[in-house]
Design a protein that fits this description.
Layout: H1 6-17, H2 29-40, H3 47-66, H4 70-86, H5 103-116, E1 121-128, E2 137-147, E3 154-160, H6 174-180, E4 187-189, H7 191-205
Helix pairs in contact: 1-7, 3-7, 4-5
Length: 207
């Protein structure tokens, strides 16, 4: 399968639009060094070492997911309200029910809901050129931009409507499957938090 994974595409559009450092910005220096060392080790760890690794990944993931700001909380609440309104048998513009997998229509409906709720929301399509690791491609996502003080500038919040499912793997380990259960079905958060989450999951998927 030559199609890039979700993590590849997210890194593509984040690198293109939000140049960030490679650090786990929400974790301590000791945690980052520990995670980097474990990522480089071969899969010959003892049961105790494996258990310690997965326990640490769970803590890192929870730390990245549970930190939030007032802006993120408001956008998340409005997004949940929109999703709840769309549940049931309501039909979308493509004549299929909202309960079916229709990402384009769902994205458009949530976009309209957020705009009607007063948010500066847009449907973004980011394209990137091919590199040695990933082919060229594009990624469509929702983004809310809130202007704060001149000193702080703008706050951007990314919305991914099918988040957890993108990380499910057919032959994943039991530990990995347990880890991704912490992921929300819908991700709402700053781009840097999203990048931290993906870094943790990509490292875990290699084990």
């Amino acid at each position: 399968d030559d199609m890039p994974s979700f993590s590849d595409t997210v890194f593509g559009f984040l690198d293109e639009n939000y140049p960030l450092s490679g650090d786990y910005s929400d974790s301590s220096t000791e945690e980052r060094e520990w995670a980097d060392e474990k990522d480089e080790e071969e899969n010959s760890a003892s049961p105790e070492e494996r258990r310690a690794f997965w326990d640490q990944q769970e803590k890192l993931l929870q730390g990245a997911l549970f930190r939030t700001s007032s802006v993120e909380s408001r956008v998340r609440h409005a997004t949940k309200e929109g999703m709840k309104m769309l549940q049931g048998s309501r039909e979308c513009s493509c004549q299929r029910s909202m309960g079916e997998s229709c990402r384009d229509c769902l994205r458009r409906e949530i976009f309209n809901h957020l705009c009607n709720a007063g948010f500066n929301c847009s449907i973004r399509k980011s394209k990137w050129k091919s590199s040695s690791k990933i082919p060229s491609g594009e990624h469509i996502y929702l983004e809310v931009v809130e202007k704060t003080s001149p000193e702080k500038g703008e706050i951007r919040v990314v919305i991914e409507l099918n988040f957890r499912a993108e990380f499910e793997m057919a032959r994943a380990s039991q530990e990995y499957n347990k880890l991704i259960q912490w992921l929300p079905e819908v991700y709402v958060g700053k781009p840097e938090r999203l990048r931290n989450v993906i870094k943790i999951l990509c490292g875990a998927a290699k084990k």
